[in-house]
Backbone:
């Protein structure tokens, strides 16, 4: 079993999470729990395969073998009961570049793209930088959880609406959308000729009791209007290897995407990413099962800690991802005051909720993919700072 309790020093490794704290938070003496990567080693099988390839010593131009595609096909079927074909798979250096290429492929400047806020903030810049119009369809927040607002969605669709970017599982609120929710969303998009770009990068990180459903797997009709973007980067902590892929069953959409990707040089990956993806999908099942159990225990630790020791801070139910969405609104602080409390007094670097949309005011996103000792220390620091604030 992987030792997820082991603390692995990451400072001075060019880690975005650990070595950019001074720039992001104004101080580097805090526990960083913001960037969505894990503080865990990749599976030992991946490490061995990469070491073996390094020992060969020659790293020339490399093509992608059929076994790479076969591993994706097998993985999607075994995890999601989704039958896909090799021709549907397109490689990419990352999910965000893929989303930008989708925007360029399936929409024109001045047309509208819908996102469901609060949501992963690179969606915003991807839309705006490409001269498209961002339309927000905020999720409904009630009884401590989120659901889609289909009535608001239908009101906002017009003859300029071309795309909806779906986040499933949803980052940052942690929802794993139910099949019936996705069916209703898909029917709306079908009726209105809207292309769905589904970011499913966290789709393997599903908590016990929940099930991920790729929206494209529900029906041929949904598959024909959907582009699925995913990767091994979150699942096996391999983001630095810049290897992801898209699944596009519709040949018209696929050809349009490939044309754009070729024009922008986005079909490339690298020799180590190719190896790591295939080995992860072939041999990573047990490691992933152990990881999910560890993340479940971390989630439950935070839930119990908040309930027992900081009841003024709430959290939505984490159904998928390793990102907890914490609600600090009962503290009565403005967002800048909340950031000061957490960053400068508690010395814990959470992700500012406002970055995900105005609905994130009073919220923070916390990455719990770290050793339990790190998580315990962060929670104790928050408890001390918040209790001091409440006594003032």
Residues:
């Amino acid at each position: 079993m992987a030792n997820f309790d082991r603390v692995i020093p990451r400072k001075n490794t060019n880690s975005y999470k650990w070595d950019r704290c001074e720039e992001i938070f104004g101080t580097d003496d805090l526990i960083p729990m913001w960037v969505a990567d894990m503080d865990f080693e990749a599976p030992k099988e991946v490490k061995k395969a990469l070491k073996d390839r390094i020992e060969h010593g020659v790293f020339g131009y490399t093509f992608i073998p059929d076994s790479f595609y076969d591993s994706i096909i097998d993985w999607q079927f075994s995890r999601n009961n989704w039958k896909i074909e090799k021709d549907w798979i397109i490689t990419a250096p990352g999910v965000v570049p893929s989303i930008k290429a989708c925007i360029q492929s399936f929409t024109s400047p001045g047309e509208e793209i819908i996102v469901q806020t609060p949501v992963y903030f690179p969606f915003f810049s991807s839309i705006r930088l490409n001269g498209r119009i961002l339309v927000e369809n905020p999720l409904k927040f009630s009884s401590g959880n989120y659901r889609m607002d289909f009535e608001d969605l239908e009101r906002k669709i017009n003859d300029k609406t071309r795309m909806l970017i779906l986040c499933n599982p949803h980052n940052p609120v942690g929802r794993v959308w139910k099949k019936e929710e996705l069916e209703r969303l898909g029917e709306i998009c079908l009726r209105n000729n809207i292309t769905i770009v589904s970011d499913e990068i966290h789709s393997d990180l599903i908590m016990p009791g929940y099930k991920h459903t790729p929206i494209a797997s529900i029906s041929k009709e949904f598959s024909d209007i959907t582009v699925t973007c995913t990767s091994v980067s979150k699942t096996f902590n391999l983001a630095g290897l810049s290897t992801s892929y898209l699944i596009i069953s519709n040949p018209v959409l696929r050809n349009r995407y490939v044309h754009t990707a070729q024009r922008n040089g986005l079909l490339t990956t690298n020799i180590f990413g190719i190896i790591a993806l295939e080995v992860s999908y072939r041999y990573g099942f047990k490691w992933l099962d152990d990881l999910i159990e560890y993340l479940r225990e971390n989630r439950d630790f935070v839930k119990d800690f908040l309930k027992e020791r900081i009841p003024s801070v709430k959290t939505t139910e984490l159904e998928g991802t390793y990102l907890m969405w914490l609600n600090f609104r009962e503290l009565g602080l403005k967002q800048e005051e909340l950031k000061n409390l957490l960053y400068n007094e508690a010395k814990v670097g959470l992700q500012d909720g406002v970055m995900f949309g105005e609905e994130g005011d009073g919220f923070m996103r916390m990455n719990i993919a770290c050793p339990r000792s790190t998580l315990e220390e962060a929670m104790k620091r928050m408890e001390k700072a918040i209790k001091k604030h409440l006594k003032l």
